[in-house]
Amino acid sequence: MAGEVSSAPTVTGNRALMLEEPLLFEIGSRDQTGVDFEPHSEGTSRMGGLERDSLDLPGLSEPEAVRHYTRLSRQNYAIDLGLFPLGSCTMKHNPRLNEKMARLPGFADIHPLQPQETVQGALELINKLAFWLIDLTGMHGVAMSPKAGAHGELCGLLCIRAALEARGDARQVVLVPESAHGTNPATAAFCGYRVENIPATKTGRVDLEALKARLGPDVAAVMITNPNTCGLFEPDMKAISDAVHAAGAFVYCDGANFNAIVGKVRPGDLGVDAMHINLHKTFSTPHGGGGPGSGPVVLSEALAPYGPLPFAAKYPDGSYKMVEEETAGEEHPDAFGRMVAFHGQMGMFTRALTYILSHGADGLAQVAEDSVLNANYILRSLEDVLDAPFAFSGPCMHEAIFSDKGFAEGFSTIDVAKALIDEGFHPMTMYFPLVVHGAMLVEPTETESKANLDQFIAALRSIAERAKAGDQALKAAPIYAPRRRLDETLAARKPVLSYNNPAPDGSSTGLGAHFGGG
Ligand SMILES: *Cc1c(COP(=O)(O)O)cnc(C)c1O
């Protein structure tokens, strides 16, 4: 209980084995270093006067440097430490087999400019993964190179624009539901489209009639997330696609939530023209703390000819080739261009293919089933104590949405999130999607045991009861973390990102003026 804990500070500032850690610049001294540089040779500089006299690097011994970063790493939360219920992010366990495969030298130690005959295995892997992504989605082609979900959205919309331009059709508008991830309208605007919102129904789904009423010759595409960001399946998806196609437009599906339907539903059967797959969500692979993203885009027959270069093609003699050029006579004369310098994220491809092959078709379907089961377990276990705005309309998909309705005056979602930190959990996604006031989007994923879910539910239940009762102690949370609440607005609006050497008299505050909460 908060009130019973003595707040007497320790001499060191450390708390149990949670160690305080100053900035590197504050612990290092400039006259101490682990490296001796050669005295630099005389000669004419080609730096154009930009060379520095002193780098002012903090000097530390090896154990000091190792301890600095190890201590900082202990202040991080990770999926390897516990449940990470960040809705829309699919923070699932990363099987170590994936890591083992990704580190095989034939995949890890190759260079994108190596002669193609020396990397046939890597090209085969990219081609195989492409095959399975097409198979799982019921689509026609796939662009493998986009490097994250948002990059995939850009790729998909560029394909749509190229297809429209090819038929001499300059449309200006992209329709996006109110609940969409911010990357959807951002992508459409970046591609030069005007973004208009599609309203939602009371059950949190796209309003089909409103959408139909808005379709017309100026609409290039509709971007829909399915399952949507309220964690709900869009049952009208086929009717939406049919209406969009009848109006001469394309259907972009944000596939970030594919985890809920992988192995169960093929977006191609629902009339989708383009969909990115976040390999780093659905197919495990570490993200949100180090690992890169990867966002291949599956394409319908209508859009596949416009997909970007390069791609790994298989030839009748069994060899593989990275098709790099849009030369006449090559397979791909209509490519809109190129997304990235090389071929995408090899390590992520290796992890994703390992994940797919080790699960098999039945295993992937079970991923979807268990992720949905876990989310519904959380929804039904907490709906008596937390407002669940769409629970009346039936089961959710792989994430459960709650709101702060019913909390005592002055209490909001942020208080729940901060209290979860004290309970040892990473907070859920907060205040997203925007269509739910004070949203709390909880995505447990299929890799949590019932015991873990029960512990999380008990923690969230107790916090929700305190928020409803107006327990003022909740306002102080987190009290056990290395820092108290930060001034998040100030930190976001005026981030202090550089370190100023303290003046000799110690008057400068250096970095951290806005972050030194506790
Ligand atoms: C994660 C996510 C994205 C963006 O994917 P990134 O890989 O982070 O660029 C887009 N839409 C939704 C619904 C998401 O959850």
From TrEMBL:
<feature type="domain" description="Aminotransferase class V">
    <location>
        <begin position="180"/>
        <end position="288"/>
    </location>
</feature>
<dbReference type="InterPro" id="IPR015424">
    <property type="entry name" value="PyrdxlP-dep_Trfase"/>
</dbReference>
<dbReference type="InterPro" id="IPR049316">
    <property type="entry name" value="GDC-P_C"/>
</dbReference>
<dbReference type="Pfam" id="PF21478">
    <property type="entry name" value="GcvP2_C"/>
</dbReference>
<feature type="compositionally biased region" description="Polar residues">
    <location>
        <begin position="498"/>
        <end position="510"/>
    </location>
</feature>
<keyword id="KW-0663">Pyridoxal phosphate</keyword>
<feature type="domain" description="Glycine dehydrogenase C-terminal">
    <location>
        <begin position="369"/>
        <end position="468"/>
    </location>
</feature>
<dbReference type="InterPro" id="IPR000192">
    <property type="entry name" value="Aminotrans_V_dom"/>
</dbReference>
<feature type="compositionally biased region" description="Basic and acidic residues">
    <location>
        <begin position="38"/>
        <end position="55"/>
    </location>
</feature>
<dbReference type="GO" id="GO:0004375">
    <property type="term" value="F:glycine dehydrogenase (decarboxylating) activity"/>
</dbReference>
<comment type="function">
    <text>The glycine cleavage system catalyzes the degradation of glycine. The P protein binds the alpha-amino group of glycine through its pyridoxal phosphate cofactor; CO(2) is released and the remaining methylamine moiety is then transferred to the lipoamide cofactor of the H protein.</text>
</comment>
<dbReference type="Pfam" id="PF00266">
    <property type="entry name" value="Aminotran_5"/>
</dbReference>
<feature type="region of interest" description="Disordered">
    <location>
        <begin position="38"/>
        <end position="57"/>
    </location>
</feature>
<dbReference type="InterPro" id="IPR015422">
    <property type="entry name" value="PyrdxlP-dep_Trfase_small"/>
</dbReference>
<dbReference type="InterPro" id="IPR020581">
    <property type="entry name" value="GDC_P"/>
</dbReference>
<dbReference type="InterPro" id="IPR015421">
    <property type="entry name" value="PyrdxlP-dep_Trfase_major"/>
</dbReference>
<keyword id="KW-0560">Oxidoreductase</keyword>
<protein>
    <recommendedName>
        <fullName>glycine dehydrogenase (aminomethyl-transferring)</fullName>
        <ecNumber>1.4.4.2</ecNumber>
    </recommendedName>
</protein>
<feature type="region of interest" description="Disordered">
    <location>
        <begin position="497"/>
        <end position="518"/>
    </location>
</feature>
